[in-house]
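User: Run a structure prediction on this.
Assistant: Running it now.
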Amino acid sequence: RTQEGVANTILGSYAGYGDSEDSFSSSTLVGYRAGFGLSTGSDNILLGWQAGDELITGSRNIIIGYDIDARADNSANTLNIGNLIFATGVDGIGTDLSSGNVGIATAAPAGLFTVGDGTMTVFADGRIGIGTADPAAMHHVQASESDLYTMLVSTGSDANQYIISVSSEGITDFHQTNIQNFVVENRTSDPGDPVTGQIWMIVE
């Protein structure tokens, strides 16, 4: 390598090669050309063949995998494992929790935990969105296609044996053919102590 710096651990041909006029510190680079383009980016952990080789000034990144890169040459406080698991705001030190978000199959998680392109998102305030990245309630399910149900309660292994369905238009159906006994009563679970205004449903 041509660089200067302190507290670095570098293993691999051309790892951290950079520019002789710049320096970075406190980084761990393992693998052929890992961190090859680093100039001033410090505190990085780059593991793998050409891992983070296009990173230049970005600091405090964790990049793991074969030929895996940061999202930009100045990315900071990010995680990328195999272009599958991503994180932003990776800024925790010691036992302090990081402030960012985690994404599976998305490099830009919209909430504390996001799967895919808004397929499922869990926010720090407890809201959960399925099919939407902007839940309007604590639990918000939105069908992505008109022929999909937003809710389906099944009674067995046969996918057609469902008793309750809610369509993408919000229409709720109770399927009588799959129900032997369906009871709706204005009481709580205690028959001897009914509560006005409450509805209790059972399927027997």
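Residues 149-178 form one domain.
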